[in-house]
Design a protein that fits this description.
Two copies of one chain form a homodimer. Chain A is of the alpha+beta class. Chain A has helices spanning 4-12, 56-73, 93-110, 164-172, 180-191, 197-203, 217-228, 243-251, 255-262, 280-289; strands at 30-45, 76-87, 113-121, 130-139, 155-159, 209-212, 231-235, 271-275, 294-301, 305-309. A six-stranded mixed sheet of chain A has the order 6-8-5-9-7-10, with helices on both faces. The radius of gyration of chain A is 20 Å and the shape is globular. The two termini of chain A are 40 Å apart. At the A-B interface, helix 1, strand 1, helix 2, strand 2 and strand 3 of A face helix 1, strand 1, helix 2, strand 2 and strand 3 of B. Strand 1 of chain A pairs antiparallel with strand 1 of chain B.
Chain lengths: 328, 328
């Protein structure tokens, strides 16, 4: 195995070549120009946030994309990221090379740069690959979209489709059987979330609140409700579903319960947001211009908490709202 | 064990209360005003960067201080930090509480704030506590002090004393015996490095290059030499030593070899910097004003690499320059 500095020079410095203040990773710190920024940090741990058998290239992309998704939900344009990796004991150089390929592909796709970071290795056998990404975004004149701006009467929207990542994980683990094409699609939704970077950038000044869906639609709507001091009603029959998810619902004994499950699955990395009813045309335009599907799925009301309502207007029981790393 | 959100609310949100853009950790991201910033990121892994038996409060401080030290070496004033923690499986709430106490004490001492972060837990038994800190500093008008500005003829300086942390670790592990007072002092130097935040802030406009000593004096001088495309001569008899280190040198069979070892130990978190000879008075003043000892230990010359020279001017062999996480 090559040494630490060679690894940085060979695999990581090229990823920082386009960012002046990264100094080719040859200094102790990076320097950033005076910009109003939004910063987010998400950790990924093997076995918790990705599977041991997932390709290191897809893991690299996921680490970037969960952070890109956070910035998108805040209406920020991504600039670059700081990367911290703790590799397993005895990691092979090819593994790091493959990880760097994933970073490069997503840097090109999302026009971002590596800015700085730290690389080290475990000394305990079996300790998992741990990845920490801190991502920096620039704000437009409309400022950051908070979780706390939703007001009674606002519409509730979500991008893309709901529950696919959870079904994808279940499909990969063999817990649910799908037709081959559906399995491929759902697995991709779990392994390579598509952060809604363009849509997020277009929502500034229109959305009253926003969050990306990582804990699950219901749980994340709960975060908006809590921070905005409102309640949120979501209409189960308005939830946007992929063909694959639709096929699963159709086979379910209890369609409402199945919808509730989709609304509880995490890792979708869609944007859940609210906007005043006067902004319906602006939201539609943002969706069209950025070629991102957006569905109106609910309404903000006075009160507390989140209700999932059937077509008949009856509350649907939601068993489990999101994943808690410390529950037990 | 309380849930993830309760942990954040109870232990971490209070640490972010003073920073407006942290939104009490109640949003997906933090927002920072338009400032010219320096950003650094350092990972700490249990067993690699701190010992399993070190108190979680001292570990919290070390995680902050290694990053504060990076900012100090760049001439930046620390503002705040993003914190990522991966706790061991089954971590107790008291452990997290103790960790938060350490953060609070250092936040007060160094006038910084928690700005954002992420907290999760391992699902593999025996996987170590892993801490990722990304720290943000503000730059004065003199800009960032790079590694690359040293020029032939410059003086080489170092703050504080050299090799204490390495001796401290050896003392803690029972590999070297010291008098009780010396052991206590050295252990403190290993477990609670004192980042030279004030001195760093006073060196802007005077130092031509700078780095903090984490890999070891010789190795870090090597980083400056490489980035500045110069050679560095260090005079062994000018190395500033603590009383404890001095007592160890006096007992050594080969004093030069022992000095070389001190100059190879990592984790000192002193500032190693260069400045033109015309700035000697400015450096002296910076040292006085910030009450930080500074020793002139060498000179920058044309060429490549770092030489440790005896009082007679003969090169002293240096066995091992710094620690490589991937060597093996």
């Amino acid at each position: 195995m090559t040494g630490e500095f060679d690894i940085i020079r060979k695999y990581f410095a090229p990823l920082a070549a386009d960012f002046d203040g990264a100094f080719n990773l040859g200094d102790d710190a990076a320097s950033l120009p005076a910009l109003e920024t939004v910063i987010t940090k998400d950790l990924l741990v093997e076995g918790v946030h990705f599977r041991a058998r997932d390709s290191r290239s897809s893991v690299a992309k996921k680490a970037l994309r969960v952070n890109l998704s956070d910035l998108a939900a805040k209406g920020a344009r991504p600039l670059g990221y700081f990367l911290g990796c703790v590799w397993p004991l005895g990691v092979k150089e090819e593994t790091i090379a493959e990880f760097a390929v994933g970073l490069r592909e997503d840097q090109d796709q999302f026009k971002i740069s590596l800015i700085g970071g730290d690389t080290t290795a475990h000394i305990v056998k079996g300790a998992p690959l741990t990845i920490s990404v801190t991502m920096i975004g620039a704000l437009g004149s409309a400022g950051m979209i908070r979780r706390s701006g939703a007001a009674p009467g606002d519409d509730v929207y979500v991008s893309g489709s709901i529950g696919d990542a959870g079904l994808g994980l279940a499909a990969l683990n063999g817990e649910i059987k799908f037709a081959a094409a559906h399995k491929l699609y759902l697995a991709g939704r779990y392994q390579s979330p598509s952060p809604r970077v363009s849509l997020g950038g277009a929502l500034g000044g229109h959305a009253s609140s926003s969050i990306d869906i990582s804990d699950g639609l219901i749980a994340d709507a709960g975060h908006i409700a809590e921070q905005s001091k409102v309640a949120i009603d979501i209409f189960a029959d308005k939830l946007p579903l992929s063909d694959a998810a639709q096929s699963w619902i159709e086979k379910a004994d209890d369609a409402d319960a199945a919808l509730a499950q989709l609304a509880s699955f995490g890792d979708d990395y869609e944007i859940l947001f609210t906007a005043p009813a006067t902004r319906r045309r602006s939201v539609e335009l943002a969706s069209q211009v950025t070629k991102t599907p957006v569905a109106r799925i609910g309404t903000v009301v006075r009160g507390k908490g989140v209700r999932l309502l059937s077509a008949a207007g009856a509350p649907i029981a939601v068993a489990r709202a999101g994943f808690d790393h410390f529950a037990g």
